[in-house]
Amino acid sequence: MEVEEEVSRWEGYADWRNRAAVKGRHGGMIAASFVLVVEVLENLAYLANASNLVMYLREYMHMSPSKSANEVTNFMGTAFLLALLGGFLSDAFFSTYQIFLISASIEFLGLIILTIQARTPSLMPSSCDSSTCQEVSGSKEAMLFIGLYLVALGVGGIKGSLPSHGAEQFDESTPKGRKQRSTFFNYFVFCLACGALVAVTFVVWLEDNKGWEWGFGVSTIAIFVSILIFLSGSRFYRNKIPCGSPLTTILKVLLAASVKCYATGSSSNAVVSLAASPSNHSVPKGKKEVESEEELEKPRHQEAEPPQTQLTNSLRFLNGAAEEKPVHRLLQCTVQQVEDVKIVLKMLPIFACTIMLNCCLAQLSTFSVQQAASMNTKIGNLKVPPASLPIFPVVFIMTLAPIYDHLIIPFARKATKTEMGVTHLQRIGVGLVLSILAMGVAALVEIKRKGVAKDNGLLDSKETLPVTFLWIALQYLFLGSADLFTLAGLLEYFFTEAPSSMRSLATSLSWASLAMGYYLSSVIVSIVNSITGSSANTPWLRGKSINRYKLDYFYWLMCVLSAANFLHYLFWAMRYKYRSTGSRS
């Protein structure tokens, strides 16, 4: 009886009461379904404010256009960067279950502060007198930023823990479990889009027509309900037990390898001194030599497989960290730790190549809104707010995600006779190609828009151009497709390929890429204006009106940079070797 009970347990997992998780009772698609519903509400709460925040800071806090845009960029970038903190804490000290609850509570507190401020006139800046507006300052400004950055901290923790928590519910030792996990990531992005759809339509309308206290209020209710729904699924979850700080392991291996290389005079000597076989593997006595590259690629499932006992040839300079006699006992590293760090380092170039795509997303979410505002935004008798432009990629993602999961992937599996059908890196590559096309389309649409302005003598006018804003929707459709392929591919790639002790931190890199894309976009705009504004010329991205901007030139530049980035991506992707069975093509 005891043996049967032991066999039925999930090794390395616990339930919400910290008791051993049991197979058949904990985990599976039912548990992951709670996560998907929570993501709808969580993303609604975040995007409801982020998508229209620049208008709130300009019209209600009386910030200048440049300062308000900069503050929004900082807010969104900070929120996504803090996902790394959420991922780190989930791996090191807490479970993803605990980090979500803590982070959602922090975001809830921040939204309450923002709601109270928006609802109380005495906590807002004074009304404008004629042409003079008093910008928010002092304790009122402090209250605003405390609320905003509590929300950013909460969002970061949720993004760093929730995707991993959902993916942890599946048994990766079986093909069925791995396929269900792939479906989960597809529908995670679908649920992101569902929340965004409500945020950029209903909530933006409330903010524009009923007041911002209504918008903040809806977000506050949404995050509160998400906590209740998450808690209601507690008895179904299996929660991975934290394995200690992954950063400590990474730093220890890098430091130990560096000290070893320095002590021996060169990295090559360090590797030679480790060689116990012609293949430069460190093979313990009584252990069998790895016979093929395919064996090296076998997945190391936490529940079933023993720790790795052999050093591989890749990144051989790190092998010195696994020496039997380290310089100091604190620098003692196991073979498993060294191999885990190698995996992380191999994933970093893939991560770096996705930053440019997110830079394109950031640019189009700023300039495209300004373009649309200058165009005819009516569809029949309905006037669409420019802030609701993201509805186009959102609807496209919601349409494409089920088609991809239920039609494209099954067909690809049959055609390629592989478990995945389309590998993670192939999926990311498709997203990068679509981002190149999106920038090319954006340039062509801008040429058309400026042509209409010139033909009608409206280059310096603030009048609405006689051209529909639906032209802008074309670039959004390409970007929506790129986002679906890349974000879902990245989340699954990092979770699947990362060592089990570092999965939440690795998955958080998907959000960190988004943050760095926002920051890089600001840098590129500054560099472009600095270079093109020399010699008494007007910078490409400045002028009396957006009709005087050289946005088409800028979009062509982004198209070229994206193409160069894709070639860079191909260099690394073609050399990457999957470690997980279900990921191989």
UniProtKB/TrEMBL annotation:
Principal subcellular localization: membrane
Record keywords: Membrane, Transmembrane, Transmembrane helix
Keyword Transmembrane applies: yes
Membrane topology category: Multi-pass membrane protein
Transmembrane intervals: 28-48, 69-89, 95-116, 184-206, 212-231, 347-367, 387-407, 428-447, 467-491, 511-533, 553-574
Places the protein is found: Membrane
Region listing for Disordered, in residue ranges: 277-309
InterPro entries, per database record: MFS_trans_sf, POT_fam
Superkingdom of source: Eukaryota
SUPFAM superfamilies attached to this UniProt entry: MFS general substrate transporter
GO terms under cellular component: membrane
Coiled coil: none
Family: Belongs to the major facilitator superfamily. Proton-dependent oligopeptide transporter (POT/PTR) (TC 2.A.17) family.
Name the UniProt record assigns to this protein: Protein NRT1/ PTR FAMILY 4.6
